[in-house]
Amino acid sequence: METPLSFQGPHSNVRASELMIFVYLDEFGHIGPFESRTSQKHNESPVFGLAGMMLPERAVRPFASYFLKQKEFHFADEIKKSKKMAAKWEKKGTSFIRPKPIAEYVEARRVLHRILKKIDELGGNVFYYGREKIVGAKDLNSIGLYTTCLSHALRNIDAECEKRKEPFVVVVDQHSARKELLECAAKTMYGSQPCRNLASPPFEVESYINQNIQAADWIATLIGRLFAYRMLPEQYGDHEGIDRIFGSRVQGLEAGCVFEKRIKRTGVRAPRPKPVPKVDPNHPFAALAKLRTD
Questions:
Q1: Strand order through the sheet with 125-132
Q2: How many alpha carbons fall within 13 Å on the CB side of residue 111?
Q3: pLDDT tens across 39-72, in order?
């Protein structure tokens, strides 16, 4: 009896028993130029990056269900006024993750702590990659900054998943520069130093119907507040409470996270060393000068 032919497909390092890591990312900070918090035009944020969460495949649905329930409980009045289904109603992180609401409303603090705790309970992590912007630079290439951060984020996630021996996929919110971002992801995935654990280019979704992307938005907002304060505490002193309440909790959940700081310049130049005078070896006092320098 002939043995039936079979086709197993191309060789892959991914075993069938391995579970996928789902990474949900959103922007934090602001992609435009920054001069100062009091500037009339460029005053949004001194930082920019991507942040969110890494969830094991088995945790994707349970976390989404938990997030939806928390949203329904903590923002019931707002959802009712909107006359929308809770599953189609979105609460932006920037609308309540601010110094005053966090300080005054225990429910704002409680819902964030519960979300972070659930990520931990389900075996997930907080992830971010970001950088401090050049203060006062008005010729900032916004798309270039985004694609650079995306490329670095993918490589850092890939390095983290390489340690775990697990593949991953990335889910992001829809973006106006979709073509440029997908091209950047493809280069990062298949380039000279490929992200071998990245199973597919990032998936784009509508945030208002994806609970996990909404949670990533909250985390990204929180990360943006933390690093705005840490980079410019003299301008973002009112963010100190956010760092005090959530800073250590976020740190305990981090995996593969990187934030790049700019080198601080004092504006004071070091004094130039005085030139050593040349001595004519045939001069009668040459021997005495040599003794002094020795």
A1: 203-205, 168-173, 21-29, 47-56, 125-132, 258-260
A2: 23
A3: 989 989 999 999 999 999 999 999 999 999 999 9
